[in-house]
TrEMBL record:
The gene is Tifa. It comes from Prunella himalayana. GO terms for biological process: innate immune response; positive regulation of canonical NF-kappaB signal transduction. GO terms for cellular component: cytoplasm. Residues 166-186 are annotated as: Disordered. This is TRAF-interacting protein with FHA domain-containing protein A. The lineage of its organism: Eukaryota, Metazoa, Chordata, Craniata, Vertebrata.
Amino acid sequence: MSSFEEAETEETVTCLHLTFYHPGQGQKKMFRCLDFCRREQVRADDTAKFGRDSSLCRYSLMDTRVSRIQFSLQFYRKLHSSEYAFEIKNLSKKTKLTVNQTELGYLNKVDLPWKCIICFGDYQILAEIQEGEAVDYFETHLHLAEAPILQERCLPSPQPVPENGISPSFSLCQGKSPTEIDENEL
């Protein structure tokens, strides 16, 4: 037998990718204590805390408007399943946390969807879970977004108005495709 055949089976590791954005990140440098260059291993029984107090939080945000401990992420295995998940808990008494439009007050917690947007104050964090099999630890990989993660999606797109000011009678929302009309036909 070769050493390849005798080698331990390689486990894949669950990785939580977190992409951070704040409109003042260029000037205020609130992310200066975060390591965006490499993956970091976190023991499965540790709680990953995010906040301003670097003695209590694994991930420090250098901003006086952030709570000492803003929120935590806990890795766990679902009951009667081999599936792993994360739960997010709001630990701020002053600031509500939203996870994909679900608002969490102080000490409220929910399961983290496999892809979601976490918001508090002006902070936006895109969280994406890459599944794995390892049970003793998970990894975090932090990224920095150049543009806002959350965009306004509820605004209707403006309809073009012809030069004569009369709107066409058809609506694009009714499933009809736009057609060109010669200005002499109006």
